[in-house]
Write a structure and sequence with these properties.
Ribose 5-phosphate Isomerase B, Chain: A; alpha/beta; 5 strands
Length: about 180
């Protein structure tokens, strides 16, 4: 695993060890996810979390999700936030975009099992929602599940993540 990514992972795990502990959460959305972002940011603050809002600051029909998701993903990968929430209209674009940043493991999630299993087994660090797809109550439930889940740190999971890190650093060999 690249050293910078390993440091960010260690810091994120150190700061988010206990379920329910106050965390620094990054959040970002384009116009398709703006309403849900505002709702979740409020709920996160009410729950005692520090929220770092990467935008959009107001709904603008012609904005572009990468302008908000990439800064969120970079902050997540650098350990400046412990976890991230990315939202666009469907959630697909936010997920694809976030996963282009080395050290980010983002996934579009609309059900509880993946919200915790993705963290426990795959060290998911950024959850994505479709602001036009998932309702507010479900998104809040999923966010809470995601934020309280902890990476199991089993050898098999670390081994798999090391293979992903190799892909990110372009050191892996292409299949022959």
């Amino acid at each position: 695993m690249p050293k910078k990514t390993a440091i960010a992972l260690d810091r994120r795990h150190e700061l988010a060890e206990l379920p329910g502990k106050r965390q620094r959460i990054g959040i970002a959305a384009d116009h398709g996810g703006y309403e849900l972002k505002e709702y979740l940011a409020g709920k996160l603050r009410e729950a005692g979390h520090e929220v770092v809002d990467f935008g959009d600051g107001r709904p603008q029909e012609h904005d572009n999700y990468p302008d908000f998701i990439v800064p969120l993903a970079r902050a997540d990968a650098a350990g400046k936030v412990q976890r991230g929430v990315g939202i666009c209209g469907s959630g697909v674009g936010a997920s694809v975009c976030a996963n282009k940043v080395a050290g980010v493991r983002a996934c579009l999630i609309h059900e509880n099992f993946s919200a915790h299993q993705g963290v426990e087994d795959d060290d998911l660090n950024l959850i994505c929602f479709g602001g036009l797809v998932v309702g507010h109550a479900l998104a809040w439930e999923l966010a809470q599940t995601f934020l309280t889940a902890r990476f199991k740190n089993a050898e098999r999971f670390r081994r798999r993540l090391a293979k992903v890190a190799d892909l990110e650093s372009n050191t892996s060999k292409d299949p022959e």
